[in-house]
Amino acid sequence: MNETPERDSPKRGRRGVATSAGSASAVLSVVDAAFAYDQAPALEGITFDIRAGEAVALIGPNGSGKSTLLKGILGLITRTNGSVSVLGASPAPVGSIGYVPQAGELDPDFPITLAQVVMMGRYRSLGWLRLPGKRDRAAVAEALDAVGLADRAHTRFGELSGGQQQRGLLARAIASGPRLLLLDEPFNGLDQKNRDALIETVERLKARGVAVLVSTHDLDLARAVCESVLLLNGTQVAFGPRDDVLTLANVQQAFKEVGVEIDEHTVVVPDHEGC
User: Fold this and answer.
1) Secondary structure of 178-247 in HEC code, one letter for each residue
2) What whole-number distance in Å separates Cα of residue 98 and Cα of residue 45?
3) Spatial CB neighbours of 124, under 8 Å, sequence gap ≥ 6
4) Domains in the chain: boundaries
5) For residues 16-43, b (16+ Cβ closer than 10 Å) or e, as one string?
6) pLDDT of 233-274, one tens digit each?
7) Which CATH number is 11-96+178-268 given?
């Protein structure tokens, strides 16, 4: 595990929520942000930052706003308050963010190879007129190697296991050369082999200075990969160093209204993931 860079002492906001005023050195800085769907408020009062080589676990019940926050950072939904900046800029610089959605985004029957899926990560830098070149093919090969799937490059995507498909989508995000990586429940349904491979890949990316925001219900995963935790339930419940935030009392506060089973390792939730 990488050493966590020193943070400024967090300030205490309303409801005792740890907040940060943002940092000039942050890869991602979110300050008092709120988001809405068709003017209907979905998430509010979000303040945190992530620096290079850090990972933050995003934890909350279904419908708490985890996917909403990721989409808000991507600029896919309306921000109604506050600010979101990536590398000090808003909107984020082109190619600075890699995004791995929840599994099931691609039709498994679509006749496309894993390498072709990963090449999609290069399209934004390619533009409309330029065909993939040597540099693009090298980026795809490097991304496949990073997730341990170099030997499956020419396999049809739909023939891969669910865990391999998820690692392939991570390779697609890596191929774009992001400074910030957003992962939406990437470990759901993975066997131990694929889970371990994904964890190792995230650790390597952090060692290269990539900042990571990962939505998960697995508290052991958060402890293994992430230096900090952001707890949500329609608003920010707590944010700060992993061991300070991941207390049973804090997790119970975040999940108190949804009637789910909570222990020190995992928050057990229904299979369907809300926004």
Assistant:
1) CCEEEEECCCCCCCHHHHHHHHHHHHHHHHCCCEEEEECCEHHHHHHHCCEEEEECCEEEEEEEHHHHCC
2) 24
3) 94, 95, 176
4) 11-96+178-268, 109-177
5) ebbbbebbeebbbbbbbbbbbeeeeebb
6) 999 999 999 999 988 888 888 887 655 555 555 554 433 344
7) 3.40.50.300
